[in-house]
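COMPLEX REQUEST
Ligand: 3,6-anhydro-alpha-L-galactopyranose
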Amino acid sequence: MRRASAVPARALVWGLGVLVPFAVAAGALLAAQPNAAEPKAFPYGLPEAKPDRPLSTAMERLYTQYPTTTPRTNELFSNFRYTRLEGLDYHGGDGTVSRRDPSKVVRANGKYYVWYTKRQTATPPRGAAHGTDTVPSTDWDLAEIWYATSEDGFVWQEQGVAVPRPPKPQPGWRSVSTPDVLVWKGRFYLYYQGFLEMSGTRGDDCPVTASVADGPDGPWRPAGKVVVPNGAPGAWDQYSIHDPYPLVYRGKIYLYYKSDMAGKPHHVRAQGLAIAEDPFGPFRKHPLNPVLNSGHETMLWPFREGIAALAARHGHEHNTVQFAPDGVAFRVMATVSLTPTAGGPYVPDAFTDTKDGRGITWGLAHFTNAGTREARHSILARFDCDLSRDWHNPWMKQTEIWLKPEIYFSQGLNPPQREGRAKAARARPASDVEAAP
Ligand code: AAL
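STATUS: Structure written out below.
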């Protein structure tokens, strides 16, 4: 081996000049290479199929809980758009006329039909303490069930009373309210709350009764008996059976309903299922009731081989759309906002015993805070949505709703709350940062 001193200086410099930058570059390259042990990052572009790799709880949920990876393509996610109805008069908004809790919309005789609670009283509601035979305690007290029709779903003509209050002691003598419709073997059935006492006396307690007719225009013959009874003493639905909502599913009548299993002051609403082979019962309550742990007024529709539901207003899962492949095991499929209250959707396959539910695109709902505080009453309104497998409107698949600042400020603190927070803010120790280690 020749001694170094023998290596000409230039060759050495040349050698170093090549090797060093190469070594530096190789080092940088190596440093940039993900350390072989480092797992590759989650891929850009959100793959449709669940990647075969360790996933965070949130990404695991994205691929296992929801029907699609984004709300944009989720048939069970939608915005809700609202339209004021034309054709219904509210007596100048003085609180003596109120329409609320619309049924599902049914298409028959070439037009759309809807049934609802109508209160026409000398005064607006005055609370249970002031309720009398003519003064209502609540907005749905001393009420009847009326109906309206429409050619297009926007302009409605009130047709008259469908179910008046029956004589005492029949269920509903105090008030009949919150109807929903079933079509079974060619006949029409209305299910509704039948009050046997003034709402607010103990709670909003009532069972459900029903009426039948050969056509949507009646005449309606009351069952004259309780059809969906309250639960046994101690049961979650012992006091109230509300918002009866029948669908035809698996060859039977699947009637969903709401109950309140805690009462004042906290009220815990949940929804149950009662099944029958005959419209006037007996209805068997599902042993797993309640089948929905959230929501208020019931709103459901056949979807694929199962049943979908909107749970609005109350509970951990309020403002969610849920799906049960068997009509019982509901899971959250989407989070939604500005949801319709007491939604009565137009469900073309509600009574066809479909195994392939197509979904919904519109319906009626109510606003219960119309008028001034002294003249409080409810109005019906139309909602449009895209919870359909046959209709795709990207405009209805936006997760952001830009409401005017005034809407947020209208939900502001009341003066005592603001004063309390200002006082607490001033009372805090002079600084939080000193505390920082
Ligand atoms: C509605 C419904 C039922 C209640 C009352 C009138 O939202 O849940 O009908 O009894 O409120």
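REMARKS: Residues 101, 140, 177-178, 193, 204, 242-243, 258, 296-297, 342 surround 3,6-anhydro-alpha-L-galactopyranose (CB under 6 Å). The two ends are 63 Å apart (CA to CA).
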